[in-house]
Structure formats: C-alpha cells, structure tokens
Amino acid sequence: MDVTLQLWIDAALTLMILSFLYRDNPFYKFAEHLFVGVSAAYLMAIGFWDHLVPNLLGKLFPSLMSGVVPGAVGRSPDYYYIIPAVFGLLLLTRLVDRWAWLSRWALAFIVGGSAGFNLPRFLDSDFIIQVQSTMIPLVVLDQSGNLLWGASFSHIVLVLGVICGLVYFFFSVEHKGVLGQVSRVGIWVLMVTFGAAFGYTVMARISLLTGRMEALGAWLATIF
Amino acid sequence: MRRRIPLIITFIIGVVLVTGYFVTRGPFNTLYESFSDYFAIITVFAFILGGGSLLKIHLKRVSNRSTDWPYSLVTLAGFAITLVIGLFKVGNPAGMGGEILAGGSWLRFVFDGVYNPLSATMFSLLAFFVASASYRAFRARTKEATILLSAAMVILLGRTPVGAWLTAWMPESLGFLELPNLANWIMAWPNTAGQRAIMIGIALGVIATSLRIILGIERNYLGRGE
Question: Is A115 domain-assigned?
Fold first, then answer.
C-alpha cells in the first residue's frame, strides 16, 4: 500500500498519543481505543496463523491444510490433537454465562501445565544455578599468590549482597537487631538493582521517543 | 463435578510434566512432549477468549450507550478490520499460503502504519512520566531513593558518550571511577547481587505455589461457588 498514506497515518496517530502530555483529550482517547482493538486482533491473527493452523488444524486436517501448511502434505491425521481442540473450545465457554463453569477444565489444564513446567525449570535455572553461581571465593589471588583487592572486593559485594537481599525477603522472623541491620543492607542492594533497571528503562523509552521524532521528521520532510 | 474434575486435571497434567522433566525415557517423555504441544495450542485459545471478551464488553457499552461509548465503536471497528485482514490474509502477494506479515500485505500495512507507531508512542510517553517520577523521588530525600537514583544516573550517564566525556580528565590511577567503568561495575556486581536475591526469592515462591496448585491446596483459580 501507499508509503505516503502510511506516513500520514503514522504521524497522525503519534501526535494523537503525544497530545496526552497536555491533558486527556478526545484525540488521545480515539488513538488509545484504536490501539486496544487493533492490537487484540493483530495478536489473535498472529496466534491463529503461527500456532493454531500449523500445530492444530494442520495435524487434524492435513489434506485440507496442505495448501497452507507445507509440512502437512501427505501426512495422515493425528486424532490425539482432538484433546487440545476440545479443551480450547471449552475455554471459550467462559463467554457464555450458563456454560462458563466448563471453562474451568481448560483453565485447569493451563494452570496445571504452568505449574508442571515451572516447578522443575525454576528449581533448576533460578534456584540451584543461582545459588551455585554465588558460591565463589571471597579472597581472589593471582597466579603469583598476590591478593587482588578489586576482584576480592567485588566478590564480597556479590556474596554479601545476595545474602542481605535474601534476608530482606525472609519474613518469618521480625526484622529487628542484627537481622534488621542485615535486612537494611539488603534493601540498599535491591535499590541499586532497581536503580539500574530504572536507568535502562529510561534509556529504552528515550530511544523509542527518538524513533517517534524521526518518524515525525520523515513525515514533515514529505510536506516541505 | 464442577470443582473435582478440574482438580484432577491439574494434578495429572502437573505430575506428568514434572516427572517428564526428570524421566527422559518411556511414556512420561512422550506424554511430556504431547502435553507441551497441547499446552501451547490451548494458550492460543486464550487469545481468542481475550478477543471475545473485548467484543462482549464493548458491544455492551455501545448497546447501553455508556459514557464515552463512541470510542467503543473505534475499538470494535479497529478490531473487526484488523481481524478480517489478518485471518483472510487480505492483499497478501502469495495468497493464503504466504507469510502472514509478508511485505505488501494489508496486515503489514496495519502493523507498520498503526500498531507499531501506536505502541512505540504509548511506551515513549513513559519517558516523560519517568522523569516526573524521579523528580518526586528526589524530593522524598530518603536514603533508599538517593541510592536508587544515584545508581540510575551512573548507569544512564555511563552508558552514553556524555559519561565518558564528563570523567575523561581523571588520572589513570582513578580510572575505576570513570562513569563507564563505574556503570559496568555496578551492573556486574551489586546489580547482579540484587537480581540474584530476587530470582532466588521468586524461584522459591514459584516452586511452593506450583506444588500447592498440583496438590490441590491452592484452588483460587477455580473461582468461588460451584
């Protein structure tokens, strides 16, 4: 479709959203509501063609889908895939009040699946590996046996930082006395982490804003 | 039946997936792979459910003539047009067999001309709100807010050419205090320490909650009543 038309729509929608900086107004509300509708339909269409067609319809009706799913040519139907199809349809019963309770069966599959996937995965990658990576030497020496002050200091910061951070999350005991002091250091460590995340978020948002300004510049260049 | 069957389904799926992770042979492995596929498919239906709920809510707002109902028409129109374009691959040069976001297709036009600018501008708005939030945090004058904003400033300046320019005059012996080096050190050590503490805490929470769900102790997802 026409590139100039696309530039004009792009610029108009950008200005409508940016108008919110002045105050809430009908142009912003228009763009906001359009965004909700378009993004929901866009994600549905992508989900349909990228997942549902090749992984479900292509397996249940290979001959019918052979023109759309390349791997389906000459394959026989896999009727086991009726199971996810039924559960998927049961999930949609949530839209009908009378039958909404049936959607719990599909929801149970999703919740049970999430729990079953997450339990071993988090145990492995987010618990065991993280604890293992924190078990590092506090005193770092070079090959000649000399103390490396900088590296040792960094290792101590890491190990103590993790311990203090974990103490802060330990709510079974009241944070008083020594535990309270350690927990306070834990808060400072967490604040540094949040500060770093905050800094990166600001950078990412400013980079997006720069991109939008460039788009507006390209639009203005088509006018003048 | 309305509560017991979902609990049985959750238990079976959870046990099979946990066992399949550790037992990589025999029926558990086959079931693990099948359930992984089924899980991905059912999750896509959740998108359809989301679209259906969106339609239901906005149609209700239009029919009741609720406050700001004309904007609901905008949502419905945007939803319907994009869905038809996406599902029927309207304007796709390769027809129904082509890539969904193929160049020249109408959905590509919607993505580049509508979805992308709207999402990018919406998120870029946060740059302004983040600036005002940091100003308010500075005014709070607490030790924690100062640490947070100092770390943020060092990262922001250290990751841009301005940071290197500001501290370029420092002697070599104090090189570790140059903003880019300081930012790298914060990212590598204190930041990692905080992130690790959070990750371990989250992992323990997820493991405990998953166990409660699989064993049927946690039932909030079933909602109230029969």
Answer: no
Examine residue B138 and state whether it is found in any structural domain, yes or no.
Answer: no
Supply angle C-alpha A60, A66, A69, rounded to 5: 80
Question: What is the residue range of B18's domain?
Answer: 1-68
Residue A210 lies in a domain: yes
**Does residue A168 form part of some domain?**
yes
Residue A116 in domain: no
* Amino acid present at A50: D
Report how many helices (DSSP H) and strands (DSSP E) chain A contains, helices first: 9, 0
Under DSSP, the state recorded for B34 is H
Nearest to A17 among B7, B18, B122 (CB): B122
Query: Measured between alpha carbons, how far is B188 from A221 in angstroms, rounded to an integer?
Result: 43
B3 pLDDT exceeds 70?
yes
Q: How far is CA B166 from the centre of its chain?
A: 36
| Residue B90 with chain A: CB contacts under 8 Å | none
Q: How close A144 gets to chain B, by Cα (Å)?
A: 22
CA distance A178 to chain B (A): 19
Task: Render pLDDT for A81-139 as a digit per residue (tens, 0 to 9).
Answer: 999 999 999 999 999 989 999 999 999 999 999 999 999 999 999 999 999 999 999 99
How far apart CA B45 and CA B148 sit, in angstroms, is 41
**In the beta sheet, which residues pair with residue A147?**
A141
**Residue B65: other Cβ atoms inside 10 A:** 8
- The set of residues, in sequence order, having a beta carbon less than 8 Å from that of B53 and lying 6+ positions away, is A94, A95
A35, A103, A152: best to mutate for the B interface, most B CBs within 10 A: A35
How far is CA B196 from its chain centroid? 20
* Partner-chain residue, chosen from A43, A188, A199, that has the shortest CB–CB distance to B152: A199
- Per residue in A193-217, pLDDT (tens digit) is 999 999 999 899 999 999 999 999 9
Average pLDDT over residues B196-214: 96
Pick from A190, A207, A222 the residue to mutate for testing the B interface (most B CBs within 10 Å).
Answer: A190
Cα separation, B16 vs A115, in Å, equals 11
Q: Taking CB atoms and an 8 Å cut-off, how many pairs form between chains A and B?
A: 406
